[in-house]
Amino acid sequence: MATKAFQKIYTQITQITKATCSLKATNVGAEELATVDGRLAQVVKIYGDDITLQVFGGTEGIPTNAEVIFLGKAPTLKVSENLSGRFFNAFGEPIDGGATPEGEEREIGGPSVNPVRRMQPSELIATGIAGIDLNNTLVSGQKIPFFADPDQPYNEVMANVALRAQTDRIILGGMGLTNDDYLYFKNVFNNAGVLDRIVCFINTTENPPVERLLIPDMALTAAEYFAVDRNEKVLVLLTDMTLFADALAIVSNRMDQIPSKDSMPGSLYSDLAKIYEKAVQFPEGGSITIIAVTTLSGGDITHAIPDNTGYITEGQLYLRKDTDVGKVIVDPFRSLSRLKQLVIGKKTREDHPQVMNAAVRLFSDAANAKTKLENGFDLSDYDERCLKFAKDYSEDILAVDVNIDTTEMLDKTWEIFGNYFRQEEVNIKQNLVDTYWKN
């Protein structure tokens, strides 16, 4: 061991795997950064003086006598207003050609907010996507995932949420994005003229997979700055958490940890919870709301990643392709926002809860009619009208490309009711029917 400018330099590596290396060292901190043969690494395991480092660029070509220099700090991000409109990699370095922004240096991956500093979420987050805002209304400080098949346009939906959401700041954390996805986000934000309120942290498929593990913490450190220091309503968009979990599995497997369900590490629940629990509503007005994408393998919602996610988050938004209209919709049956009752009818129009319930009931009746049709049974007049209603409802409300505000959304649903049903069939309180029914 040698010492150089107060940094300890070790030159005796005891074990090397594909992603990690081990050595004996003292006075090393958890998650501390180091360089191994010039490559950035991070402490992932400490057992006495046995230290295991995760090497972000991989360990190929590293000799056992390589220089290991501990940097004395965990990964950090310089936070300031200068983050706005910028694109960064997993280490907080600019990838948009601009200069490195100055600001206060803060460690990433800190603890979640103390419960006594939280308040119950009560502010509406309107996304402009009617399939979310009508049936699965989001609340500031909420944590909720999109469950989607890999071939669905979930990144386009996330970009639309970023453009339409009525928040002060959007933080995008992209993990395992293709270059096409990265350029798509960049062009959409540029062309819409909203870059001044968006901060992006991007890991592409060309970067080492283990670098993805830093993206959520980078995004949430920036979010905490804007929510706490500047009292802003911040929306954090994370895509794709399945690729994040795959990176966790790569590291744990290469550290010879025994895998749990579906080859995931046993720490998967706590690793995901550490991220999602950063969602919070502060009494002072700032908030962090987290919407994440979890891609499904063959629609399997029982896989360890969506299964653990469902226990942590406050509902889910389930995307599926509606064969009747040929569009991707927010499925009203499999989607759920557990906090929507805190804002619907309170921060939205009084008829919202009744309209939501009536629409889903009629959509369910249409599903029953479709089953009767597929099994060769005759349809009643009511069944026929339900099927027509469902088609319009999917096309004009549930489809992810529908961009209307909450008032238009409710008015449009009343209009569809009026096209196919009598007032008594929708089963809505008479005083609301008298006020809003579209003849």
End-to-end CA span: 84 Å
Residue runs with pLDDT of under 50 for 5 or more positions: none
Overall tally of structural domains:
3
- Structural category is alpha/beta
Number of DSSP helical runs: 12
CATH topology of the largest domain: Rossmann fold
CATH architecture of the largest domain: 3-Layer(aba) Sandwich
Helix content bin: 25-40%
Class of the largest domain, according to the CATH hierarchy?
Alpha Beta
Q: Please describe the biggest sheet, giving its number of strands, its sense, and whether it closes into a barrel.
A: 10 strands, mixed
Number of strands: 22
- Report the mean per-residue pLDDT as an integer: 90
Radius of gyration: 25 Å
> What's the shape?
elongated
Give the strand content: 15-25%
